[in-house]
Amino acid sequence: MLTDAQKLAPTPGTHIQMTYLEALMQAQMEEMDRDERVVLMGEDISVYGGDKLIERFGRNRIWDTPISEGSFTGMGIGAAINGLRPIVDLEFASFAYLASDQIINQASKLRYMTGGQIDIPIVFRCCMFSTGSMAAQHADRPYPLFMNVPGLKIISPTSAADIKGLMKSAIRDGDPVLVFEEKRLWPLKGDVPTDPDHVIPIGKADVKREGKDVTLIAIAGAIRPTMEAVDALAKEGISVEVIDPRTLKPLDHEAFKTSVAKTGRLVIVENGHRVCNVGSEIVAVMAEEAFDLLKRPILRLSAPDIHVPFSPSLEKDFYPTKDHIVAAVRRLL
Amino acid sequence: MQLNGDQRLEAYRRMLRIRRFEEEGMRQFKGDKIPGFFHSSVGQEAAIVGACLALRDDDAMTGTHRSHGHPIGKGAHLDALMAEVMGKEGGICKGRGGSMHFADNSVGIISESAIVGGGIPLATGCAFSARVRGVDQVTLCFFGDGAVNQGTFHESLNMASLWKLPVIYLCENNGYAITTSLAQSHGQPDIALRAAGYGMPGVTVDGQDVCAVYEAAAQAVRRARAGEGPTLIVANTYRFDEHSFGLVISGEPYRSVEEVEAHKRDRDPILLYRTVLLEEGINEESLGAVEDEVAEAVKQAVKFALASPMPRPETLPDYMFNSPLAGQYSSAAGLERN
């Protein structure tokens, strides 16, 4: 059994098993080691930030903030303009609404509005705690709202290797990047390269499973029921190709089209609310750019246009489940 | 700390540059050369220039939607500013920002936020960066009396005080948030008293007296550089023009003609300062030379701006990203349609 320190120690050229959350933490720590301009700020971050951050980096790099999302987010933006590369951890994705004025009116716009005079190299982290009876004010998945804002890059990886590589890209990027993590993915283990320069480019989708009958695009936490459904369908001889966009803004249109050119059928699965979600955008893209590739209508599975309920009995089937996904794929065949 | 020899004429020069720039801007606006809004700083020059002169060239600054005066006060060239209000390619923000967003990074201005109160956290962050990097740079944050009622004011002053950040919060208190007076919007109208709630000094100065503003700002800068933390300065000032030039406000007048005229007559910061300079022995000739120089600079700025081309439509996406990504504009609503 390895200790945490051994497990997280970088060794170039090798892979190591670790969880999604460990990979995320390792990405942050390696980048903080690499670049002293990287600072971390957020509420209770020295306690919940993991792995004794203050001991390792000191209080000048790790900042526990007051409960002032609107302004500590703006403070991160000002610091990014003035020489630092902050990671602002908003914890719950639902809290991003409090910070949204600064993210939208300042971070996303100021480079453009100043005619390129300033850069805003900042990362906004938040996590989607969509299940577990958090109720509506702690369970949102607000990535579609931010996708409608020009000037932001948005990532939402689903594997340990991807979160590490994309988080590193986000920290090294010269522009504002929003990271939507998914609580349900935190414990998932995977092989992660220990190379400190393992980066995955923002904007490139990944084929998580090859298949020939149906293309399934899974967003963030929806990857878990999707993989269960795909395994069940495989036993029946139905071959599903699973695409993980990994980056939500900009979306990798070519990856979707390449897959649908092969399968002719498309299902999109996500945990966002139904109206104007990422599925809506993908459907529009496919209708405009690849309509002739489709043999059947596109199906979208998502949360309904209803707030996330508290009671487990109401929450149980709130998001797309394995059964919903299996049924959707069957409808297209 | 008082304005020294060279600074005394420089203060006059910069206030006059703001005044003449604004007056010329309003003429160009009337002549349909300037689109959008035009919020003039006429009447508020001393509050701006007094504070700016207390800064070093490498100090940072943020401003407001009433944005023309701030870069001029910090020493910016006028040409690119005039071109910006006209939406020209040669504008300081390449025609992407316009009248309310005169950020000029060459003089340390990182942004002018037209979202009221939006710039206060940014300035606080600039100061935070100086603190983390261990440099003695100070940040000056301009905002109006309306912004004091935004949550960002409270949150930012709290954090700046908590961490003793090198930032100066300078409230240009002109008494009106568009048409809503201070008395109608502040439960406790003495803004400087709010500083006590955050554990920092709160200073009220006559915002029509450039020397008084300078002295308060210089004292705050000294505190900030010494690691003693932020200061709130409230400069009581007055805008001579309407909230936005050409804006017609119908219904009950929110301020009387007599009030405005009295300020223009008795409280014009440039006239007041000119009298002080003459009393201090600076002759008419020296002041006249500054006046001629400023008139020439404004004339040149208009010439530059009128001659500057409009940005080409194909440059629409320029300046969006530092690191553009493939496919960033590949959606159907992308460039082809624009």
UniProtKB/TrEMBL annotation, chain A:
SMART domains: Transket_pyr. The keyword Isomerase does not apply. Residues 18-188 form the Transketolase-like pyrimidine-binding domain. InterPro entries: THDP-binding, Transketo_C/PFOR_II, Transketolase-like_Pyr-bd, Transketolase_C. Keywords: Oxidoreductase, Thiamine pyrophosphate. Its cofactor is thiamine diphosphate. It holds the Pfam family Transket_pyr. The keyword Lipoprotein does not apply. NCBIfam families: PRK09212.1. This is Alpha-ketoacid dehydrogenase subunit beta. It comes from Mesorhizobium onobrychidis.
Automatic annotation (TrEMBL), chain B:
Keywords: Oxidoreductase, Thiamine pyrophosphate. Its cofactor is thiamine diphosphate. Gene3D superfamilies: 3.40.50.970. It comes from the Bacteria. Residues 13-314 form the Dehydrogenase E1 component domain. It catalyses: N(6)-[(R)-lipoyl]-L-lysyl-[protein] + pyruvate + H(+) = N(6)-[(R)-S(8)-acetyldihydrolipoyl]-L-lysyl-[protein] + CO2. The pyruvate dehydrogenase complex catalyzes the overall conversion of pyruvate to acetyl-CoA and CO(2). It contains multiple copies of three enzymatic components: pyruvate dehydrogenase (E1), dihydrolipoamide acetyltransferase (E2) and lipoamide dehydrogenase (E3). This is Thiamine pyrophosphate-dependent dehydrogenase E1 component subunit alpha. It comes from Mesorhizobium onobrychidis.
